[in-house]
Known about the structure:
Keywords: Transferase
CATH superfamily: Vaccinia Virus protein VP39
Order of helices and strands: HHEHEHEEHEHHEHHHE
InterPro entries: Erg6_SMT_methyltransf (IPR050447), Methyltransf_11 (IPR013216), SAM-dependent_MTases_sf (IPR029063)
Bound molecules: S-adenosylmethionine
Low-confidence stretches: none
GO molecular function: S-adenosylmethionine-dependent methyltransferase activity
Protein name: Methyltransferase type 11 domain-containing protein
CATH class: Alpha Beta
Structural class: alpha/beta
Organism: Candidatus Uhrbacteria bacterium RIFCSPLOWO2_01_FULL_47_24
Number of strands: 7
Shape: globular
Amino acid sequence: MNNQQVWKNYEHESKVEKFYASGIDGFHDYHKGYLNFGYWTRDGMTYEEAAENLVRHAGELLGLGQGSILLDVGCGMGTQDIALFRACNPESIDALDVTWKHIERARIRALREGVGEDRIRFHHGSATKLPFPDNSFTHLLSIEAPEHFDTREKFFHEAFRVLKPGGVMVLTDYGLVRPPRNMFERGAIDFARRLWQVPKANIYENNIYQSKLEAAGFQAIAIDTIGKYTIPGYYFEHRRPESVAEIKKIRGFWKGIVGGYLIDVGVYGAYKLGLCEYLIVCAKKPII
Ligand SMILES: C[S@@+](CC[C@H](N)C(=O)[O-])C[C@H]1O[C@@H](n2cnc3c(N)ncnc32)[C@H](O)[C@@H]1O
């Protein structure tokens, strides 16, 4: 296990870490530590059920099982790794995140849940400079984190490097369905991406997403859009009075209520305008 990294102020990692670390000391077990949008495939699901459903779906797409050696990039507070460990029994999980406080929480959570460090290891680091040798993992996962990486394209090359030949990668992410049509759409995207710490270089349509994966060497690429099962569910979960009260307590009025609301409205609005989609991406590193 590695120790805390120190990001320079000008590095994008520093901005992302500040964004996610804010209010985290009050987060405790809110939403069970999950930060994903959820996969709302049944009526009446709670947020925790939807969040776990998304993780399970990603695990199934990956084909995780005994003998799998998984790298999870942007693991958040580690809840998803413990869930995958229990559900799929992989040989090991290395999970990495740029936010030190997330790694601290993940390590505490794993200890509390009785999951040994020999099977799940949490690392502080960046997706664009993965601290692992070439050909280390059979599977690689990233849930709702690639949009932040500086850049996502650099991460594709790193992911390809650390995967073994024949390795599988699954990402959940956001993409543009079409280019913005006018100044209003361009302005709204720019505003939301700045608030959410998304580099400008990561804003592009799905055909460009696919070509960047191909350029990194990936094959058998499938990019599915599942926005209708993710974006509205999360948006309306955050509008519940109980959620508003809890988020205000955790992140404060300005960051939690005002900032969070603007990001939610930005993503939901862009989705409703047919501009942005939630992606689930599967790709393989070829054997030769
Ligand atoms: C929306 S959260 C998702 C967390 C987790 N996958 C989940 O669904 O609960 C995005 C995560 O990506 C992490 N992240 C952002 N940029 C990163 C980078 N360059 N390298 C590693 N992790 C990063 C953030 O710290 C945050 O934990």
